[in-house]
Design goal:
Elements (H helix, E strand, L loop, with lengths): L4 E5 L8 E10 L9 E7 L9 E5 L5 E6 L5 E7 L10 E8 L9 E5 L2 E2 L3 E7 L14 E4 L12 E10 L9 E3 L6 E3 L13 E3 L17 E4 L26 E4 L4 E5 L8 E4 L8 E10 L8 E7 L18 E5 L3 E3 L9 E2 L9 E7 L4 E6 L2 E2 L16 E2 L6 E7 L5 E5 L4 E2 L2 E2 L32
Antiparallel strand pairs: 1-11, 1-16, 2-7, 2-12, 3-4, 3-11, 4-5, 5-6, 6-10, 7-8, 8-9, 12-15, 13-14, 17-18, 18-30, 19-29, 20-25, 20-30, 21-22, 21-29, 22-23, 23-24, 25-26, 26-27, 26-28, 31-32
Length: 461
């Protein structure tokens, strides 16, 4: 949602002492800059601190919740000790507030994935006074994903099932539960909420809808930017490129860590590799990469494929994932690469690709085969559905290993976008979705029968 925000102006509310926020969030980047990013803000028209409340993802990767009274004085301050650095998982955040309670520590309860947070940064900690007004929506502007009346502090990530109850307190188990098999916290897509209050709302319930799904019709509007729908959701997490590898500091990732916008400022050209967030050791998977720009038509300097997790190179510079003995790549010059230090030393496999070409990768971990296609045509007359026969397969994969998607490029002007099933290359939707018998993910081209997207649903997690 970076540079995108939602807004609504509200009138009087049901209560200023009781409320609940519940939302699911997936961070696209670990916040380490000079500014935090807003997840919620209630503000007055002149954007002063008077009657201001906000939830913010801070520059030290913590969450904070701040409340200012009518005089603009800070009366409630809660910074988590927990750091939120995982950019692959969805987190459920639930704030339950009741300032009428006599026990100060119970006036704000924060739950993360169903577990109450009990430790806050004591150097930045102020408990809400009893009966203190917490401005949620009453006679204020409510903004999600930016710093109210001024540009900036945009949230970089995905939000889903964003709920506020006005004047009524609910706990985390209204909105989620612990899976009896995996032990993980999972979403309750249809929470039972009897009382919403006059300004309660439920947005982002189904994709990017800002239409209120509560009985109140408190619809939001997109105040700026573009709100993009994604298949990635709390009940089905899709792979992205992992921003926690050392090399990620040199890539300028945008669109949810699925698109490279060149090197970060001041970074010199050299080979760098980046890897996916999800791996698999069995099953059949399919993903696509669009070449957004090929530097000066030099086709030899982008390569994509898969690599075993034990051969991932954790270095910022001078890394080619395809050097490994259990790494398999297809390069822009049409070569297939494995255990090879020189991209020119590969073997001819398919057609070269350049700007605007879409490369598909299908890998069959049950039969140990991998295939690539250019613009829907499989190289080497490949047939990903041929099973153990491996018709046109580029390589025989080493068995019993966990493989991650990977990409490497050399020049700043080499740009690419991945589609792991969200149905977009960057912010552009696929032109006409291909068939997909697994019903998991949206792709430009037909997904071979028996293959699926690399997601938690696809992995059967």
């Amino acid at each position: 949602m970076a540079s995108t925000y939602l807004t609504r102006a509200f009138s009087s509310n049901t209560s200023s002492t009781k409320c609940t926020w519940s939302f699911w969030v997936k961070f696209s980047a670990v916040n380490t800059g000079s500014n935090g990013s807003m997840l919620f803000q209630a503000r007055n028209a002149n954007n002063s601190n008077a009657y201001r409340t906000f939830i913010r993802y801070e520059d030290n990767a913590t969450l904070d919740f701040l409340v200012y009274n009518g005089s603009g004085s800070l009366v409630g301050e809660y910074y988590t000790k927990r750091k939120f650095r995982d950019c692959n998982s969805w987190f459920h955040i639930c704030y339950s507030i009741d300032t009428t309670l006599s026990t100060a520590s119970d006036r704000l309860k924060l739950y993360v994935n169903g577990v109450r947070e009990t430790e806050f940064d004591t150097s930045n900690y102020t408990e809400l006074p009893q009966n203190e007004a917490v401005k949620t929506t009453s006679s204020v502007f409510t903004d999600i994903s930016r710093n109210g009346g001024s540009a900036g502090y945009y949230f970089n990530g995905i939000l889903s099932h964003y709920i506020l109850t006005d004047g009524y307190v609910y706990q985390a188990d209204t909105f989620g539960s612990t899976d009896s098999t995996t032990g993980e916290w999972k979403i309750n897509p249809s929470p039972t909420i009897s009382n919403w209050g006059s300004n309660g709302f439920w947005i982002l319930k189904d994709g990017n809808s800002v239409t209120d799904s509560s009985p109140n019709s408190n619809n939001f509007t997109v105040g700026g930017g573009t709100l993009t729908k994604t298949e990635d959701c709390p009940s089905n997490v899709f792979a992205t490129l992992n921003p926690l590898y050392l090399s990620a500091s040199k890539f300028n990732f945008i669109q949810g860590n699925l698109r490279s916008n060149g090197w970060s400022s001041g970074t010199s050209q050299t080979w760098r590799s980046i890897y996916g967030t999800l791996g698999a050791s069995s099953g059949k998977y399919y993903f696509e990469m669009k070449c957004d720009n090929m530097y000066s038509g030099d086709t030899g300097n982008i390569a994509l494929g898969i690599v075993s997790d034990d051969q991932v190179v954790q270095t910022a510079d001078n890394s080619k994932f395809f050097n490994g003995s259990t790494a398999y790549a297809y390069a822009g010059n049409g070569q297939k690469l494995n255990n090879d230090d020189s991209i020119a030393g590969g073997d001819s496999y398919g057609s070269s690709f350049t700007t605007n070409d879409i490369i598909s990768c299908a890998y069959d971990l049950d039969n140990g085969k991998i295939y690539w296609a250019k613009n829907g045509t499989w190289a080497n007359s490949g047939d990903p559905t041929s099973g153990s026969t491996g018709t046109g397969s580029a390589f025989n994969l080493t068995a019993n290993l966990t493989y991650l998607p990977a990409v490497a490029n050399y020049y700043d002007d080499d740009r690419w976008s991945f589609n792991f099933g969200n149905g977009y290359f960057g912010a552009t939707a696929v032109s006409s979705a291909g068939t997909n018998a697994s019903n998991n993910g949206i792709f430009e081209y037909d997904v071979p029968t028996g293959y699926t997207a690399l997601s938690t649903k696809g992995l059967n997690l």
